[in-house]
C-alpha cells in the first residue's frame, strides 16, 4: 500500500479484471413487479455448475428463465430450501403448485398460500393448516372465501388475525372489529390496509399505543384533519410522522403525480 505524505493523495487505480459485474437476478420483485438485480456487485457471473447454495443465494430457481420441467428435482435440496425458493417462480405448473402446497416445510406452504395465482381450493385448504404462518398467508389472500376470512379473523394466533386485516377483500365491519383487537400488531395491520375506511382510521388515531398512532400517518386514506391533530400528539415520534404526512399531502396537492417523499 503506498504511503501517505502531506499534500499528496492516493494514486488512482483502475478496476481489476476480476471485478466482473454480477448479472444473476435476486429472485425478488420491486413495487412495480420488475425483477431486482444485484447491480455491479463484486463477484463472478453464476456458473452453470454452481453449487446448490450459490444457486439459491442468487434466486435461480425463482427466475422466470429457469426451465419449469427441471424444478421438481430441486425441491428437497438444502433441507427443502429448494422448494421454498422455487415457490416464487412466476410460471409454476399446476402439478408442482399442488406438490409445494403440501410440502413439509411450512414456509414453502406459506409462500404458496400468498401467491396470487394459487387456485382458491388450495388457499381454502391451506387456511386450515396447523401452522400459523400458513394460515396468515391464506388469510391475506384475495382468493379466500368470505366465510373462511371470518373464521381466520377470529383465529387465536395474532399473526393470522393480522393477515386477515391485510386482506384487500376484508369487509368494513370486520376491519372495524380488528381495529379494536387487543394485540397492537393486528391494529397496525389494519392501518396498512388501503381499503380501511376513514372512520376506522380516525378511531385508530386515538389508539392508546403510540406506535399505532404513528402508523396511522402512513395510510393514504387518512383524512388531513386527523393528521393535523396528530401533529400535537404527546409522543415526539407521532408528531414527527404527522408532520411528514402533512408535508407529503401539501406536495401531492401541488403535484398529484409526484410520489417523492417531502
Outline the structure in words.
It is a single chain. With 262 residues, the chain is mainly alpha-helical. Among the domains are: 21-91, no CATH class; 181-262, no CATH class. The protein contains 14 helices and two strands, in the order ββαααααααααααααα. It has a two-stranded antiparallel sheet with strand order 1-2. A hairpin with a 5-residue loop joins β1 and β2 (35-37). α13 (224-230) runs antiparallel to α14. The two termini are 44 Å apart.
Question: Strand-and-helix sequence, N→C?
Answer: EEHHHHHHHHHHHHHH
Content of β-strand: under 5%
Number of helices: 14
Query: How many extended strands?
Result: 2
Give the proportion of residues in helices.
40-55%
The low-confidence parts are 1-26, 38-44
Tell me about the biggest sheet? 2 strands, antiparallel
Q: Would you tell me the structural class of the helices and strands?
A: mainly alpha
- Distance from N terminus to C terminus (CA atoms, Å) equals 44 Å
Give average pLDDT, whole number.
Answer: 82
From the alpha-carbon coordinates, what is the Rg to the nearest angstrom? 24 Å
Strand order of the largest sheet: 1-2
Shape: globular
Amino acid at each position: 500500500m503506498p504511503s501517505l505524505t502531506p499534500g499528496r493523495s492516493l494514486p488512482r487505480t483502475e478496476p481489476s479484471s476480476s471485478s466482473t459485474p454480477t448479472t444473476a437476478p435476486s429472485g425478488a420483485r420491486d413495487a412495480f413487479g420488475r425483477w431486482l438485480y444485484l447491480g455491479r456487485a463484486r463477484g463472478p457471473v453464476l456458473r452453470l455448475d454452481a453449487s446448490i447454495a450459490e444457486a439459491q443465494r442468487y434466486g435461480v430457481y425463482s427466475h422466470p428463465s429457469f426451465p419449469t420441467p427441471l424444478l421438481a428435482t430441486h425441491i428437497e435440496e438444502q433441507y427443502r430450501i429448494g422448494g421454498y425458493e422455487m415457490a416464487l417462480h412466476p410460471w409454476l405448473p399446476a402439478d408442482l403448485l399442488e406438490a409445494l402446497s403440501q410440502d413439509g416445510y411450512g414456509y414453502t406452504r406459506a409462500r404458496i398460500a400468498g401467491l396470487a395465482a394459487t387456485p382458491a381450493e388450495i388457499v381454502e385448504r391451506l387456511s386450515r393448516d396447523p401452522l400459523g404462518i400458513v394460515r396468515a398467508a391464506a388469510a391475506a389472500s384475495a382468493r379466500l372465501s368470505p366465510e373462511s376470512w371470518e373464521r381466520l379473523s377470529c383465529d387465536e394466533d395474532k399473526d393470522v388475525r393480522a393477515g386477515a386485516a391485510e386482506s384487500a377483500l376484508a369487509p368494513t365491519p370486520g376491519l372495524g372489529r380488528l381495529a379494536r383487537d387487543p394485540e397492537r400488531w393486528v391494529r397496525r395491520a389494519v392501518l396498512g390496509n388501503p381499503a380501511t375506511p376513514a372512520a376506522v382510521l380516525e378511531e385508530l388515531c386515538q389508539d392508546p399505543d403510540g406506535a399505532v398512532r404513528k402508523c396511522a400517518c402512513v395510510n393514504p386514506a387518512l383524512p388531513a384533519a386527523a393528521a393535523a391533530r396528530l401533529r400535537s400528539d404527546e409522543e415526539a415520534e407521532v408528531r414527527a410522522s404527522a408532520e411528514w404526512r402533512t408535508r407529503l399531502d401539501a406536495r401531492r396537492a401541488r403535484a398529484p403525480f409526484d410520489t417523492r417523499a417531502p
